[in-house]
Specification:
The structure holds 2 protein chains of 2 kinds. Chain A has helices spanning 25-49, 55-59, 63-88, 96-103, 105-109, 124-148, 158-189, 193-199, 204-210, 212-220; strands spanning 20-21, 201-202. Chain A has one domain: Fumarate Reductase Cytochrome B subunit. Chain A has a two-stranded antiparallel ribbon. Helices cover 66% and strands 2% of the residues of chain A. Chain A is elongated, with a radius of gyration of 20 Å. Chain B is α+β, with helices and mostly antiparallel strands. Chain B contains 8 helices and 11 strands. Chain B has a 4-stranded mixed β-sheet with strand order 9-2-11-10. A 3-stranded antiparallel β-sheet of chain B has the order 1-5-6, with no helix packed on it. In chain B, strands 3-4 form a two-stranded antiparallel ribbon. In chain B, a hairpin with a 4-residue loop joins strand 7 (149-151) and strand 8 (156-158). Chain B is elongated and about 90 Å long. Chain B starts with 7 loop residues before the first strand and ends in a 17-residue tail after the last helix. The chains are: A mainly alpha, B alpha+beta. The interface between A and B is large, with 55 and 54 residues.
Chain lengths: 226, 297
């Protein structure tokens, strides 16, 4: 894992207090690209979803403009997810340790983290979120292509249009559920996460506390690739 | 029939009810198409294109008298020609003027997310307001009759307006005006249904069409265009007129329970994380060197 190396960090002195590279510049660019495109499509999607949220389309230039850009921005979001898949596919694969962690996930929700087995670069919850977004985006993409060009679907295949609407709504709701939890955990719940996604670095304490196995690898330097 | 009947009673994609809807009694207008006296002259097609100033469009010859396979964004009125084989082996023409049915419960309006892009007037006419249309095409998904059609240049959807502009001035729609055989009638829904039923009875009792009847499908709350058919038990024979048209159940679910369940889930999720934060607070790791809090093997 190229991300798992110790780097020097301004403001942190002493060997063991150096910041640890948590996310490379490219990983952060991809993450924030995904965030911006997802939020744009969330706002415009909500506008198409409910009349009471149509003002969302108005603030980004009006309904017709929102309708024009929603699918294109969605394609950019798909590209960012493809990049994430390429970067994180291996880190996101569930392991035997995750299964143990999942059984006592309750302690994670009650902030009794000391009762949990140690985790690698990403914990089981993060992996769940990643795969929810991955499969959600597959549903959104396939159904979205039908909805984008729905006038081109012949009358005899109109069932596709109905299917697309159902799949788009369900996939969107799955990703929204994940998104709500993700934003909460990344900003409010797990302090230091947002900083890591902006600066790219995490403190050794943070790494040790939240991702012990990953920390061990990072500090020992160049552990065997999984 | 006057401008007073053009008060709006339903609005698409609108937060709240239509202002003033149902405050005054007004007449429902209706177009009656008697397919048994249609001669397929296409005068209605020409009148529609003329009155609505629709641009010329190319069509193709497909070994049929029918002008084109289906209505288009600039061709709102199309006679469907069908050669029908009767039980005794003889052929008969079934000719049906196809256009927007102006449903009492319009699927297009239900599906539309754009505020005011589709309205239903007090007189029952369902009218597209292209100025408010965002071009999403949800109306195409919502319509059980394959009527709304997309224009790729304007990115808006179009269909028959039942000549709302003419009706508001006390005139009949252009297609009615042009019909030479009197197979098209225009008036109140009540009157049109009465004429239609009388004609169907005549066909059953005197013309040997035992299954003759009126097409005013209840699945969409009745329509502002009603047909007299030689065989009301087989409307599909008239160029795909659906037997029991309904707003697709996916669309009804999507615009009804799914919306409120989805909203509840989203709001519930946000409330749950708020409660979680107040209850448990943030996860912190100890800042002191050495003794990391969690995750000790």
């Amino acid at each position: 894992m190229s991300a798992s190396r110790v780097v020097s960090s301004a403001g942190v002195t002493g060997g063991s207090n150096e910041g640890i590279l948590r996310y490379t510049l490219w990983e952060r660019i991809v993450h924030w690209g995904a965030a911006v495109t997802y939020i744009y499509n969330l706002i415009t999607g909500f506008a198409f979803w409910s009349p009471y949220l149509f003002w969302g389309a108005v603030i980004v230039g009006g309904g017709a403009t929102a309708r024009f850009w929603h699918p294109w921005v969605g394609l950019v979001f798909v590209v960012t997810l493809l990049c994430m898949y390429q970067m994180w596919r291996r880190d996101m694969a569930p392991t035997e340790a995750d299964r143990k962690w999942a059984r006592v996930m309750y302690f994670y929700m009650t902030n009794e983290d000391e009762k949990l087995p140690p985790t690698g670069r990403f914990n089981f919850g993060q992996k769940l979120f990643f795969w929810a977004m991955w499969y959600g985006v597959i549903g959104l993409l396939l159904s979205g292509m039908v909805m984008w060009f729905n006038e081109a679907i012949p009358w005899s295949l109109r069932g596709l249009r109905y299917l697309a609407v159902a799949v788009h709504v369900i996939s969107a709701l799955v990703t929204i559920g994940g998104f709500i939890v993700h934003v909460y955990m990344g900003t409010a719940l797990v302090r230091g996460s947002l900083t890591a996604m902006i600066s790219g670095e995490a403190s050794p304490q943070w790494a040790k506390g939240h991702h012990r196995l990953w920390y061990d690898e990072a500090v020992r330097g160049g552990p065997a690739k999984k | 029939m006057s401008q007073a009947t053009l008060r709006i009673q339903k609005i698409s994609g609108h937060a709240g009810t239509a202002p003033g809807a149902g405050t005054q009694r007004s007449l429902q207008v209706c177009k009656l198409v008697d397919t048994t006296t249609c001669i397929g002259c296409k005068a209605c097609e020409v009148a529609c294109v003329e009155w609505n100033s629709l641009p010329f469009r190319h069509t193709v010859f497909e070994n049929t008298y029918q002008t084109m396979p289906e209505t288009k964004w600039n061709y709102w009125n199309l006679i469907k020609f069908n050669e029908h084989e009767r039980e005794d082996g003889t052929l008969m023409w079934l000719m049906r003027k196809d256009q927007c049915m102006h449903c009492a419960d319009p699927g297009c309006l239900k599906a539309c997310p754009a505020d005011g892009a589709i309205v239903q007037y007090d007189n029952g006419i369902v009218d597209f307001q292209q100025a408010n249309c965002i071009g999403c095409g949800y109306c195409i998904t919502g319509c059980p009759f394959n009527i709304p059609k997309f224009n790729h240049h304007t990115k808006r959807v179009y269909k028959c307006s039942l000549c709302a502009d003419r009706v508001s001035e006390g005139l009949e729609p252009a297609c009615i005006k042009a019909c030479p055989t009197g197979c098209l009638h225009f008036g109140t829904k009540e009157d049109m249904l009465e004429i239609a039923e009388r004609r169907a009875k005549q066909l059953r009792e005197h013309s040997g069409f035992a299954n003759a009847g009126v097409y005013n499908p209840p699945g969409v709350g009745g329509t502002g265009v009603v047909y007299v058919l030689h065989d009301a038990t087989n409307p599909e024979a008239y160029g795909g007129l659906p037997k029991d048209p309904q707003i697709p159940w996916v669309v009804r679910l999507w615009k009804g329970p799914a919306k409120w369940l989805g909203n509840l889930a989203i709001v519930g999720g946000i409330a749950a994380i708020a409660v979680h934060y107040l209850w448990f607070g943030p996860k912190r790791v100890e800042q002191s060197e050495g003794e990391g809090r969690g995750g000790q093997p």
